[in-house]
Amino acid sequence: MALIVQKYGGSSLESADRIRAVAERIVATKKQGHDVVVVCSAMGDTTDELLDLAARVNPTPPAREMDMLLTAGERISNSLVAMAVASFGADVQSFTGSQAGVITTERHGNARIIEVTPGRVQEAIDAGRIAIVAGFQGVNRDTKDVTTLGRGGSDTTAVALAAALGADECEIYSDVDGVYTADPRIVHDARKLDKLCFEEMLELAASGSKILVLRSVEYARAFNVPMRVRSSYSNDPGTLVAGALEDIPMEEAVLSGVATDASEAKITILGVKDLPGEAAKVFRVLADNEINIDMVLQNISSLHNLTTDITFTLPIADGPRAMELLKALQAKEGWDNITYNDQIGKVSLIGAGMKTHPGVTADFTEALRDAGVNIDMITTSEIRITAVVREIDLEEATRAIHDKFELGGDEPAIVYAGTGR
Amino acid sequence: MALIVQKYGGSSLESADRIRAVAERIVATKKQGHDVVVVCSAMGDTTDELLDLAARVNPTPPAREMDMLLTAGERISNSLVAMAVASFGADVQSFTGSQAGVITTERHGNARIIEVTPGRVQEAIDAGRIAIVAGFQGVNRDTKDVTTLGRGGSDTTAVALAAALGADECEIYSDVDGVYTADPRIVHDARKLDKLCFEEMLELAASGSKILVLRSVEYARAFNVPMRVRSSYSNDPGTLVAGALEDIPMEEAVLSGVATDASEAKITILGVKDLPGEAAKVFRVLADNEINIDMVLQNISSLHNLTTDITFTLPIADGPRAMELLKALQAKEGWDNITYNDQIGKVSLIGAGMKTHPGVTADFTEALRDAGVNIDMITTSEIRITAVVREIDLEEATRAIHDKFELGGDEPAIVYAGTGR
To answer: Which end of chain B is flanked by fewer CB atoms within 10 Å, N or C?
Structure first.
């Protein structure tokens, strides 16, 4: 008998029928003898509908009120799931984030969990009940105001609750049945992975995989909570994310998969003085405006005039704002030019096996060469190689690398409707 | 400068545009120099939509979960109104029922307010902010669970908050601009009343007027909170409900209006033994099953066989269940027959002036006679006369009484779209 936390995403709860299907799964898990705690996202498009209403009432709504509004979505799905579970004869009790003891910082819209004190949830479990907890929400310790956890907040709620309750596993349900070696819409023989270590999953999430939010994996890694990615439409065991990179025996270390990301743009600043502190000026102005940059590359200095070029990538959404900020600095700093390109894509190869397999970088670049794909930038970490290519080459590059490292399975990947949400 | 509590019903908040119109009114009241506390119902059809979802997930949902579900509706309208108020530049803070200190009994779906401890609301007022409070909801003192107050719960929240804060007035906004001498859809020269005492309003509400819920008027009377019925579509001052019957000077006591009610059915039990305790058997079985009866009439005993007939009215919704319960007793009790009729209507004349005007009952019955309306049952209280008539005669009876007592105005009544919700 184990304690299992299950998190269901919005697409798994988009209708009364889907909610009943989810409830059946929850009750079946309980009947197998396990204790079950469930975390729910808002139903289907509820959050978008509420955001739309808010925009029509006030284009710049106060963040505190926005949190009060949005958390209604999880309260609705939460109570409906509890009702559905009750209809199958199981004892059940629902909890808001506050009732479940999710204590957060005061930052509305993007609060951080300070601690989870799940006394009431534990009481419900001890009484034999299934506990249903509203995801994405918490309560500010000082003001007692309702807060939300930002993007991926329900996943984070589930992992944090699992850590606080000492759960054996945290299952994340969506409409995708696991983590694949590549996006099955791009690579048709992509293979579902049985297991990944936390570091591999972190690199995948940071490289464009949408299946788990980076923050929830970081939380799971910090508290050593095994996560399992599963589909609410099938009984496939999914993909287990657990264990540390250093605990993988060398002979079992493999390459896990190829991640793609077309959500970034590239900015190049030409003619930056090659003096200490010049690059810092660029990154300080962006940081002060809360713009996160990803890859950075500084070319070697041009010897005859002692200037250099700085190139970096950033989310497309922040591109125009970053260009405005930098253009405002250009004259004062004496930069020659600033260029912007959002027609780029990132392709990354990830896997613990990279440590023990020499020549991976050579094979990676040769695969792209053979596919006729030009590499614009390239960076590596201990278990990842990433290349920036033209966006129109991204899919071809992904397939070339996937083939080169023989990551595919024998059968075409199953692609569910809505995969990738 | 006064402290004013304003309550807005669902039809006043049914769209983003309506919410902005309501916010403008709230801010205007604040700019007049008043402190303002606002209580919101759920938007338009939200509650019905949530009820429908719940029914599809579980036809007999647990009451605790139902309360968690339904209160999401008021949280949504509450935060949207707060956002809209903020967009007009006013300082504003929203509160859930729990945050506003609405402490209730544990009875989910129909909880009673035990006390209101509006410390946080008072702090917001003292800081110059407009406070927006979610209606219809509270928190169980013992379990800290979310509760709802049942039908008319938002009106009751508003009155209870007004009482706890010592407000000068509690304004109840809907799409009707006051209390009329009769339903304007039936009586075209019905006149809006400027003022009523609590007892008159209680009799009107108990006699079928839908404009204020009985319970909220009882609460206002108990704590002496002046209520004002107003329309969110106009600037009409509406109708003030305040003061005690005994404080009305005799020369100012008038007849207030005619109320109609087609929501009841009539049950007659024939051949009941004319012995002590026989009628009690009937009413005990109904009370034990939480069926409320309204008017009761026991005919004089038939001398030759010492039996009598008992007739009473009750909500149509409870009619079939009551008949089942009584039929089950019929053989044992030896009743001759039980008849059921839901084609009846109640017409009532109400007003403090009844005390000082002799002959009102005679005029009342003559008005019905002259209109060719047969009276089935008749009862009176200190300030009310009620007759049960055939449902098809109800509108004609209403007009006849309204004319007889010259309650009409010089102009046709204004009927807004949706009047009567």
So the answer is: N
